[in-house]
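Homework help board

Subject: predicted structure for assignment chain

Our instructor gave us this sequence and asked us to write out the predicted structure in token form, then describe one feature. I got the tokens but I'm not sure how to describe them. Can anyone check?
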Amino acid sequence: MRQVRRLRLVGASGAVPRARDFTRQALQDWGWLPAATADQRAAAEDVLLVVSELVTNACLHADGPEELRIGTGAKVLRLEIVDLGAGAPAPRTPHRAGRPGGHGMFIVQRLCLDWGVVRNPDGTGKTVWAELAAPN
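My token output:
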């Protein structure tokens, strides 16, 4: 059974903490938190970090996020950030760990099973999505 939560973020101040708080509440409602094991805690922390990175990218590069969608199934949690930006996120290459900034999509790539970008059908903006494994 798939469950989906949506948070409108158009023009919201403090979009990153709002998105993180919304996601934390969804994880609590779905039984991911409070975590019973270290692996479950790490999985929940990964989800919160990816939400923070994707929403931050939308704030920095796309005039802010429009909406956050979180969907959960038996084995995968899917995050979607909708924005009106024309650009497509990509990890910086080569990745230089010592350089400040530019690590967001590298982090997303490392933590997620998969991620990608889908252009909105009307031609304005995009949805950046990421999928993470559900904790065992």
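Reply (TA_rk): Your tokens look well-formed. For the description, you could write something like this. The CA atoms of residues 53 and 104 lie 5 Å apart. That's the kind of observation they're looking for.
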